[in-house]
Amino acid sequence: MKARSDQSMTTTTTATTTTPENSAQPTEIDPFADLPAPIRATLIARGFSDLTAVQKAVVSAESRGRDLRISSQTGSGKTVAIGIALASHFIDGSNAKKKTGAPGKSRGSVARPSALVIVPTRELAAQVQNELEWLYAKLPGLNVQVVTGGTSIVMERRALTRGPGLIVGTPGRLLDHMRNRAIRCDGIDHVILDEADQMLDMGFREELEGILEQLPETRASHLMSATFPRAVTSLADRYQRNVLTLEGTRLGVANADIQHIAYSIRRHESYPALVNTLLLAGDSRCLLFVNRRIDASELAEKLASDGFGAAPFSGELAQTQRTRTLAAFKNGTFNILVSTDVAARGIDVPGISTVIHIDPPRTSEAYIHRSGRTGRAGQAGRSVLLVAGPESRRVARMLQVAKIEVSWQPVPQPEKVQKALLKQARREMHQLLAEEAPTETQLMYAKELIEERDATHVIATLLEMAKTKPPREPMKVVGLDPFADDRSKRRGGKPESRRDSQGPAGAGGRPTGRRGSKNDAEYTRFVVSWGDQTGATPSRILSHVCRRGGVESGQVGAIQISTKSSTVDISREFADAFETRSRRPDKRDPAITVRRDHSNGKANSSARSTSGPTSASRRPHAKHTGGPPHLKRKNARRTASR
User: Fold this and answer.
1) What is the rounded CA–CA span in Å between residue 107 and residue 113?
2) Are 72 and 224 in contact (CB under 8 A)?
3) What is the C-alpha R_g of the chain?
4) Is the dihedral of CA 573, 575, 581, 587 positive or negative?
5) Residues 107, 233: one domain?
6) Is the pLDDT of residue 243 over 80?
7) For 515-557, how does the pLDDT look when each residue is reduced to its tens digit (9 = 90+)?
8) Of 281, 280, 279, 300, nearest to 289 (Cα)?
9) One domain, residues 235 and 263
10) SS3 for 455?
């Protein structure tokens, strides 16, 4: 199939939803009247009382026979909208045998589907398959098959011989099957690109074009996405015709059911701020975002060691591990998932109350996708950004581009967390008193206690026993005024020092993570054999010394990074204990050594650059490896999806 040359005029339609507040009187209008009978029956049996805005837009008369560009936020029912858009195609009586993909319609080992749904990740493919299978439950003979990277291609080829009418797949694996002639394209009438922006971000443009070029000229092409950046629009213009743009939500606009909060912090306060935020969230499901796979693993491990139920979720996990991890998150085995952007694309977990951005995203589109994991299906959610001081203005501009109103708030302090936990405990107690009827034995024992002791004392003791202990105590966080520099400039003064949060630049002008403005006499300096050349960053150094030396981030002062080594200042009160623990060989990073700097010299470029030979400096590293000296960066291109 060649690119569409007959570009028709594009029409835009904005979908609206009728809410109970806007409904004057109940009506007898059937919200499913325009749907095929089997789909209508399935939705009613499933408990649907109405369609979402994007689903209504898809079934409108204006949408029929058009190529659709559907913009709608995550959790707005886009997957069911996909199924509704294809329903009439499969039910068409004149083509019933062909369209349902009944057994026997494949030629030998070649599948001849009539529709394709292309998605960026394995998890999203499984989600789409599950949704479409229940939606099409009353369509006999329709087989929905998934093909994705990370699974057995031999098993997939076997499944394709069963004649699927609809195939859901990731771009790389779909193209592999097409090139290997396991999928024949001449019968494909519909193709849907779901999360098109993410597929382009992941580098799948070549694969997408390779797939679309093989499809019949007469097929319909639909694109669904929360955002439509220029790259997606360019692809759509090339392969769509007679386009109708449906805005279930305004293009690029975030979910209105989400409260957006930003905490401006010192760079080393990320973990304490996270701990306090998680304590306030209680046992509810939380999704944490980091930029790198190694950070997902390290943060999940640190949270688990502090008593939180947390697990990592990234592309470095095998598919079976990812499936088990998601299942455990859904069933409540743990309530905190630490994920990278790519891995989270397929997460469809109800009841995620809070999304926390440990590493703020670089673009407004990425932020909308991330925060869209909460506030789904009309439920309220929170999106919390932990913003290091120097990044405050960039993050503010990013949110402004996304038209998001964010509340910049002080980081929750221990006192606030303790009050919130106490309030929650009292709420739960009153709920138990209202719902639970004590047994006769319990009542008799209660009378005995009151007769023997003061009733107030008895109740206070029982309350203390019943109090749910948090995973750990809340942590002290100083925080920052995110826009203090701007106000200082308007007053004609000098900007406040950023030394506490960013520090002086090291080699190449990079921030070296100078933290704390206290007198150097309060700290003892240590040398770490891990430098910029082998991937050291302030956050990685901080994580390593806290884990290895048994200290908290608040006990760590300045971090200075040079080419082959780094220096770390530890509060003098904890220095001896830190030195004792750090001398022990580290199983995770055996090549990294930590020793006391007996010269205890002032941090300067020459001193930092000549901190002595280390295991890292003796290794020939021509390039930045992105990790500790003993690790090599793996080529992660497309491994999460292909």
Assistant:
1) 11
2) yes
3) 29
4) positive
5) yes
6) yes
7) 443 455 688 999 999 988 787 888 788 888 888 888 877 788 8
8) 300
9) no
10) helix
Any bridge partners for residue 523, and if so which? 571
DSSP state of 492: T
Distance CA 558, CA 562 (A): 13
Strands 144-147 and 166-169: parallel
Same domain, 98 and 174: yes
Contact 67, 224 (CB under 8 A): no
Helix (H, G, I), strand (E, B) or coil at 313: strand
Residue after which a domain boundary falls, among 247, 276, 304? 247
Residue 624 lies in a domain: no
Is the C-alpha dihedral spanning 234, 239, 245, 251 positive or negative? Answer: negative
Q: What is residue 264's DSSP assignment?
A: E
Q: What is the pLDDT of residues 621-633, one digit of tens each?
A: 333 444 444 443 3
Residue whose entry in the numeric block shows the structure tokens 């997957």? 79
pLDDT at 516: 43
Residue 473 structure tokens = 């105590």
How many whole angstroms separate alpha carbon 150 and alpha carbon 148? 6
Residue with tokens 């006990």: 555
156 lies in the same domain as 240: yes
Q: Let me know: does 195 contact 235? Beta carbons within 8 Å.
A: no
| Whether residues 205 and 111 fall in one domain | yes
Q: What is residue 473's predicted lDDT score, i.e. its pLDDT? A: 76
Confirm whether 11 is domain-assigned.
no
Tokens standing for residue 514:
């100078």
Instruction: Answer yes or no: are the C-beta atoms of 191 and 221 closer than 8 Å.
Output: yes
- CA angle, 129 as apex, 124 and 131 as ends, to 5°? 95
The tokens for 631 are 């690790």
Local structure of residue 267 (DSSP, 8 states): G
| CA 326 vs CA 168, 287, 335: distances in Å | 20, 12, 11
Q: What CATH number corresponds to the domain at position 341? A: 3.40.50.300
Q: What is the pLDDT of residue 501?
A: 38
Q: How many domains does the chain have?
A: 4
CATH number assigned to the domain comprising residue 521: 3.30.70
Residues 6+ apart with CB under 8 A from 161: 106, 108, 109, 111
Range 620-638 burial, b when 16+ CB lie within 10 A, else e: eeeeebebbbeeeeeeeeb
Tens of pLDDT, residues 206-216: 999 999 999 99
First to last CA, the chain: 23
Statement to judge: residues 161 and 45 lie in one domain:
yes
Q: Of 368, 390, 412, which one is at a domain's C-terminal end?
A: 412
Q: Are residues 420 and 407 in the same domain?
A: no
- Domain that includes residue 534, residue range: 503-609
372 and 264 belong to one structural domain: yes
Residue 485 lies in a domain: no
Confidence of residue 94 (pLDDT cuts 50, 70, 90): very low
Residue 265 lies in a domain: yes
